Please model this.
Amino acid sequence: MYSAGDVRIENVPDPQIIEPTDAVIRVTRACVCGSDLWPYQKMERSDSGRVMGHEAIGVVEDVGADVRTIKRGDFVIMPFAFSDGTCVFCHDGLQTSCIHGGFFGTTEVAGAQAEAVRIPLADGTLFPLRAHADDELLASLLTLSDVMGTGHHAAVIARVTPGKSVAVVGDGAVGLCGVIAAKRLGAEQIIILGRHADRIALAKDFGATDVVSERGEAAVERVRELTGGYGVHSVLECVGLEQAMDTAISIARPGGAVGRVGVPQEQTIPGSEPAFYNNVTVGGGPAPVRAYIEDLLPDVLEGNIEPGRVFDRNVGLDGVPDGYRAMNDREAIKVMVTP
Ligand SMILES: [Zn+2]
Model:
């Protein structure tokens, strides 16, 4: 990506082992993230461009001399952040705050919308899949690199537990995975706030019990109507815009919690007053998906959850620029890339 709207497919030098803790993987599947749409809309022109993409599954082609557990030929899930797996925050299960870590698809570390990727700190970062996985599971396995783990994180931070009422703000792929996560954690009522027919239909399949398509104050009123006037225990904020956050805080019931995973596009959090007077806990951030793979993987392998259904388009590398356009125009929910 060279600037907003300017995505090109180019030949670049093959990724190489630079540090002895690196690996190189050949990408089996990658995808375009909703958060990739923020630079797609706003990025300033850059002469060097940025190799985009932070979600992938693939096969290890090469490992550095100090890589111990990851082997050539391993089939791996690549979380969107790399991490050493050994520091104080990795031990706490917060790999996105790893003191030696960072993110793929940045100006510093090339991304995964490519044939191959260099993986820093391979032993801590990559999750090797030792079980056999059928091709039909690839899409769902790919979601464990970000979108399913991120929806799950929103639900965990929003303290979803059995019997709770939940609202999911946003019907993008993360919001839809948030519905899966809320259902999986035992939520009784799951209200999806969104207005795209195809996404709403999928949300219902995933377990949403109610749909609110209003916005702003009307949405708040509608959620209150659906919850006996009080609001929901748990809100998953999966957008990142001010209005979404304002709505999220306003529909939490007193003592409730908001788990925010939409990348914030403003400097301040709205809703300070209702959050304060209702004792609403507001938390969240980049999901430590590396920590969640172990939890979520058995349900994917057993077919109990099918987060791969959020992909409604599959393209080759040449189709990536149009994939960005299609997601940005809300023509596609999420685009998978088969390099
Ligand atoms: Zn660490």
